[in-house]
Fold these 2 entries.
Entry 1:
Amino acid sequence: MTADSAPAGHGVDVDALLLVSFGGPEGPQDVLPFLRNVTRGRNVPDERLAEVAAHYDHFGGRSPINDQNRALLRALRERLAPLPVYWGNRNWAPYLTDTVARMRADGVRRAACFVTAAFASYSGCRQYREDLASALGEAGPGAPDLVKLRLFFDHPGFVEPMVDHCVRALGELPEPVRAGAPLVFTAHALPLAQAVASGPDGGAYERQLRAAAAVIAERVGQRVGGRHPWQLAYCSRSGPPHVPWLEPDVNDALAALATGGAGSAVIVPVGFVSDHMEVVYDLDVEAAGTARRHGLAVARAGTVGTDPRFVDMVADLLAERRFPGWERPALSTEGPAHDVCPLHCCDPARPRPGTGTAAAGGTGPGGTRGPASPGRRRPAAAGVPADLHVHGPG
Ligand SMILES: CC1=C(CCC(=O)O)c2cc3nc(cc4[nH]c(cc5[nH]c(cc1n2)c(C)c5CCC(=O)O)c(CCC(=O)O)c4C)C(CCC(=O)O)=C3C
Ligand SMILES: [Fe+2]
């Protein structure tokens, strides 16, 4: 039985899919307005914006991300036909607000939302729910219900293509330094406060990254018939130096590997689903440059992009919500992720159990599951606004 031919159960029926992504500039004149959209309300100094703008200038002022999403949109339309598939971004056209307005005009009643972020975090999950909620607010009465599909960090449709990409990258390393080459899994750095607050009980971003990396590394070892040690590192850190962020930075991790005597490494951008700017600049230019200066041979593993298994995964995530009892594959003990984010999920300002304070300034992301038992819902503290729901349960 396929996702398209199953009998209707008591699941959530949908009449469209909405592809939700970050967006990026498409020419030099877009770069600053795009960066202002990304950083709106956060007082990012102009020097930082200029520094990031220079990364885009390196590529003619055009991010590859929108073309990559156009390709994913085409693949999803083909896979899901006749279901209509729409596309909207947080930070650049087509903006979610315009897309949701168009869906309303087209008479869409309920759409499933596939967000191009695999891991729990404010930027990767909650902020997209805020974006969807505000697009609904702007569209007004008659706007479609929006149902966000679950996070997919350990879904086989994500893990298996990444295993292939790691195996291929290992093959690109010079033969003498290939055996036992360390796998350096990378994801976007987060301010520690956001990492601490990620997921329903905190610390989910790093736990999910480690879970996905462990599964991928294990399968790579099985495929090539040899063990490859792995570690997690972070790219694209920004923000003032006195604010703590997740560490180590990928550049420091590569330098430390070289100092420790490693001859090579594979950089695995597990935190991203396409080769956008944070990959082709921050990893392929910056981190690869660091490696070269330290005499470390590196290869970079590809991202899932439009791999047919990844496209099938979206169809399966949709089927999970439409048909109760549909298999919910998850290859690690961290998954499958929840369908509906509980109150305060990924909210950096959430009250912390026992302290009555927000997560900011908490301890490290590894040991931050608060004293509350995971199944118990904390009562909403006075003054905390009602949480964000873009849809009702089931
Ligand atoms: C978790 C995460 C993902 C993965 C999940 C997801 O995909 O959503 C992601 C993706 C992306 N991040 C991207 C670009 C940027 N991220 C920035 C800034 C930030 N990202 C953050 C986190 C994440 N980011 C954070 C905590 C910040 C700082 C605070 C803030 O600003 O929220 C800035 C501002 C400048 C700077 O300070 O670096 C830019 C330009 C692009 C587009 C690339 C292209 O154009 O091809 C993509 C896909
Ligand atoms: Fe979340």
Entry 2:
Amino acid sequence: MSFFKKLKDSISQKAEAVTNKFKDGLSKTRNAFVEGIEDLFSRRKKIDEEFYEELEEILIGADVGVNTVMKLIDELRVEVRKQKIEEAAALQPILSEKLVALLQPGEVKTTLNIAESGLTVILFVGVNGVGKTTTIGKMAHMLKQEGKKVLLAAGDTFRAGAIEQLEVWGQRVGVDVIKQQSGADPAAVMFDALQAAKTRNVDVLLCDTAGRLQNKTNLMEELNKIYRVIRREIPEAPHEVLLVLDATTGQNALSQAKLFSDKTGLTGLVLTKLDGTAKGGIVIAIRQEMDIPVKFVGLGEKMDDLQPFDSEQFVHALFTGLMTNENED
Ligand SMILES: Nc1nc2c(ncn2[C@@H]2O[C@H](COP(=O)(O)OP(=O)(O)OP(=O)(O)O)[C@@H](O)[C@H]2O)c(=O)[nH]1
């Protein structure tokens, strides 16, 4: 069975609506990256050095990351020699297969770690403006749809307007927000939120945190204090520490991921605004350079625009419709 047929079969088990969401959200990346590849494959029939060079340029331009691109091109060269491929077209499914392989999470779990019983605490970290508050709102909506009782903690007491912004999302989604006044100690807000979550029999507590990076030491100290407060109440919490990254910042998102992963015990990444960039290849770069899985992607500003990340769906959404007939839906 061909690679695309296998991929399509596995995708068809999953909801069509989700696949369509990925397709819509990734349209900018499709237009730039995939059509660039498609154009290359249609213009160049033979595999030669210029072909590899152009492919390299397209992949680097989509923010796949130089190291990963070099590795990928080397692997393609090996396949070309091994399988004695001469026509460029024959390389296209192999390229897609390699892209899926690059995105595979390996041993790491990509689903949310939810406590078997009792309260689950999820902490969101990340610099200002990456889409943290929006992601919390969307995730609250998603968990509520799954029948869970959700509570929000307004732990970003630093940025003017952050508490109100979270409250707006709380109202929109229909979940309560535990807050104190602006400037309050975030650890104290967490303490209040944990007490409230326990007495109200909440399933999942989603905690916002401040995102200022100009003062890294303080930020990390603040996070450590928050951890201590949470662990005193629930030793196995936080069950997730999710770093929110803005995909439109490209390689900068990768640097942020490295910076935070050193200090904060991250368990997963959320890549927002994928709909707003043509450089969706950053997902591949992050997967390759970090041991932490991308667990969710943001594909728009609306409530239901947060999707669990699925590598097969991602590649399928990028390539369907642009492939040969065999591969179309
Ligand atoms: N297109 C698009 N926009 C998004 C997405 N996620 C967030 N945004 C937008 O990004 C902007 C910043 O999002 P916020 O949630 O305010 O960012 P934040 O990280 O909470 O900011 P701080 O509170 O300063 O840390 C808002 O205008 C959001 O609507 C996404 O997946 N796609």
